[in-house]
Write a structure and sequence with these properties.
The chain has about 700 residues and is α+β, with helices and mostly antiparallel strands. About 55% of the residues lie in helices and about 10% in strands.
Length: about 700
């Protein structure tokens, strides 16, 4: 187990050296499960984690190849950062920081999974083609199988020709049996090749789908919050377009495209057997492709509009289900139903021409196939009568021509419609790729081993899309050990400033620095561990209560978890349910009250032990007793180098902070010690007015 821990520690250090981020708690998969001894442990570990196999260097490392994972029979695994001299290496994780080079050392490079690498393509189609090109060996195997299978399809036509021309006229039954056995063997081989090809392509298509889906899901998560489209349901429908692109990449569609070049080969064979008969497929095949191209162009506008309307429909469905409580309470059922019906009519308006054109195309291609057969037989009969071909040759030509016009033409209408929707889906995915990402998600992000220092805002300007005015802060500094409250009226910019401080929003102008580093340049996992943000409406994800508490924190023991839950009051809810921490939560945490969801968020925040706690109305949904317990717990957890920024409208919470910032219309109007700010905000009561004395009445 000591060697296992050394390898895990070396990989963790190697990821830091390469600027890559690993999932929190990735090492826990190997708790109690020892790896093989020595150098083979690395390959086994990568295989279990689903990472690419480690690449071993076969020559002396060049300076541009560092950092590298190093194996030494004496010291085990470590990270080599660079050459110190011709014979020594600078190390990161060995006890000795310098290692002497020898031929016994083994150097490895490990490619950590990173769906958001810096050289990500700008177009959705490039993502798919990139995934396909990485599986060239499988495509080459499938192509070879396609070539052999298409050649074997000629066996039945040649068999029929020999049967009519030689076996039947001569009564040569021994030849019949030889030809029959031969063609059966060819058909069996054709079956094996086509089945193998289908299985290979479908398996690789599933892997391509998994890789591409991971990329787009990660990309959607990495979109900056201030740039995210307002319609989340519509965005989810755009991502669902992956399924339509995947359908066009299925084995049936790919095989149609792969078999198309062999149509030219079959035309040559028909010309070799029947001469002038080849004129029929020479004319019918290009005519079918031209008609298909014209239909595809006619369907382009309709499929795009139908796709947009379909995305809006899915967006409305998500919105109505999420806001069903508000809709019911405000008698909005009929209003939403009317909007739904209008969308359905709009979708049908755009889809009806597509369906009519598709049905027309099916009829045209079916008639074209039958007309081609009739013309081929008519010309063939004339050629047989003139003695330029045999009746067996005519039968063979009809079979081969059916191979040219049959599968291809019969599948073209459906393929055209699928491609129209896939092209629209690619445009929708391109729109997602065009959205700006958090800059800290790339491999070029800064990964300091320790973050400390003040949060400093300088010349910050920010506004939401479509608004004229926004945030404007000339300078703001929050020290690492300060407790600060931000107050202000509705729409004053309190929550927006907190999101900017957390790095969730990117300023339009100016900068936000933490310890001298711009927060937008710090790696996301490093920044989130130091700046813990708790939104006002804390949403949970579908899963157990334990998963929601430890999400993103890695290996948290039940003892630490229950201690934090005891401080926040969440332990009462855990103890009051039969399943405890294994309680299943619905999407968004439905089934729990707003206060309970807030306690889950607060408990998770305390578990992370961040450098700064950024809290947005953390006790808005709590009763007074629970509020006091939670605030006391937060204050007791704050260390000498931990900061607290609290957005609140409850004046009683100001007693726990040292400084108050007052905001109005996106600007800081007051900033100072708590007592001074409260004194300025408290209206001064007029003192008692002097009452003039009146003369005593005469006695």
């Amino acid at each position: 187990m000591a060697e296992d821990n050394q390898l895990l520690a070396a990989l963790d250090a190697f990821a830091v050296a390469k600027g890559a981020s690993l999932p929190p708690g990735w090492q826990t998969e190997f708790d109690g499960d020892s790896l093989p001894d020595a150098i083979t442990a690395l390959s086994v570990l990568c295989a279990r984690l689903g990472w690419p196999a480690p690449q071993k260097l076969s020559t002396r490392p060049r300076p541009d190849q560092f950092p590298l994972l190093l194996w030494s029979s004496k010291d085990g695994f470590g990270v080599a950062e660079q050459w110190n001299s011709e014979s020594t290496l600078q190390m990161r994780s060995f006890v000795d920081k310098v290692c002497a080079y020898s031929d016994d050392l083994a150097f490895f490079d490990v490619a950590f999974p990173d769906p958001l690498n810096s050289d990500s393509p700008e177009a959705a189609v490039s993502v798919f083609w990139g995934a396909i090109k990485r599986r060239r060996h499988v495509l080459l195997t499938a192509t070879l199988a396609t070539v052999v299978a298409n050649i074997l399809t000629l066996a039945t036509s040649l068999y029929s020709m020999q049967l009519f021309d030689r076996v039947i006229p001569l009564g040569s039954f021994s030849t019949l049996w030889v030809l029959t056995v031969g063609v059966l063997i060819a058909l069996a081989l054709d079956l094996v090749l086509r089945t193998t090809r289908a299985l290979l392509v479908e398996r690789e298509a599933a892997e391509v789908d998994a890789e591409v889906s991971e990329y787009f899901f990660a990309r959607a998560q990495a979109v900056r919050l201030d740039a995210r489209p307002p319609g989340i349901g519509t965005m989810a429908a755009q991502l669902k377009g992956l399924e339509q692109v995947r359908s066009i990449m299925s084995s049936a569609s790919l095989f149609v495209m792969a078999d198309l070049p062999f149509s030219l080969l079959f035309i040559v064979v028909v010309f070799w057997i029947g001469g002038a008969v080849a004129l029929v497929p020479v004319v019918s095949l290009p005519f079918a492709l031209i008609v298909a191209f014209m239909i595809a162009r006619a369907l382009r506008v309709g499929t795009e509009k139908a796709q947009v309307s379909g995305n809006r429909k899915n967006g409305m469905l998500v919105e109505s289900l999420d806001a069903v409580e508000t809709i019911k309470a405000n008698r909005g059922n009929w209003f939403m139903l009317a909007r739904w019906n209008r969308l359905i009519r709009e979708i049908h308006h755009h889809e009806d021409p597509i369906k009519r054109t598709s049905a027309l195309a099916s009829s045209v291609f079916s008639s074209l196939q039958q007309v081609s057969y009739v013309l081929l037989m008519a010309i063939g009969a004339f050629e047989v009568a003139q003695g330029r071909m045999t009746s067996g040759g005519l039968l063979a030509c009809s079979i081969i021509a059916g191979r040219i016009n049959g599968p291809l033409i019969s599948m073209l209408p459906n393929l055209i419609v699928q491609w129209g929707y896939a092209r629209s889906s690619l445009k929708a995915l391109d729109a997602i790729l065009a959205l700006p990402m958090d800059r800290s998600t790339g491999q070029g992000a800064l990964r300091p081993e320790r973050l400390s220092g003040s949060l400093i805002v300088e010349k910050l300007k920010f506004s939401y899309p479509g608004t004229r005015e926004g945030m404007d802060v000339a300078r703001l500094e929050i020290k690492s050990n300060e407790r600060v409250a931000i107050i202000g009226g509705v729409g004053s910019g309190k929550s927006t400033l907190l999101r900017l401080l957390a790095g969730l929003y990117l300023p339009k102008e100016g900068s936000i620095r933490l310890g001298g580093l711009d927060v937008s340049q710090i790696a996301d996992d490093i920044l989130r561990a130091h700046l813990a943000y708790l939104p006002q409406e804390y949403r949970l994800v579908n899963g157990t209560l334990r998963e929601n508490l430890v999400m993103g924190l890695g290996n948290i023991s039940d003892e630490d978890l229950l201690q934090c839950a005891q401080r926040t009051g969440l332990a009462t809810m855990i103890a009051g349910h039969p399943k405890g921490l294994d309680l299943m939560l619905a999407e968004g945490g439905r089934g729990l009250s707003g206060g309970q969801r807030g306690l889950v968020g607060m408990t998770r925040l305390l578990l992370g032990r961040p450098g700064f706690m950024l809290l947005d109305e953390p006790t808005a949904s709590l009763d007074q007793t629970t509020e006091q317990m939670v605030i006391n717990s937060v204050i007791s957890q704050i260390g000498p180098e931990q900061g607290l920024v609290l957005v609140t409208h409850r004046l009683q919470l100001l007693s726990v902070v040292q400084r108050v910032i007052v905001m109005a219309q996106g600007r800081i109007v007051l900033d100072g010690p708590t007592a001074d700010v409260i004194a300025q905000l408290t209206p001064k009561r007029p003192g008692p007015q002097a009452v003039p004395a009146t003369a005593a009445p005469a006695q």
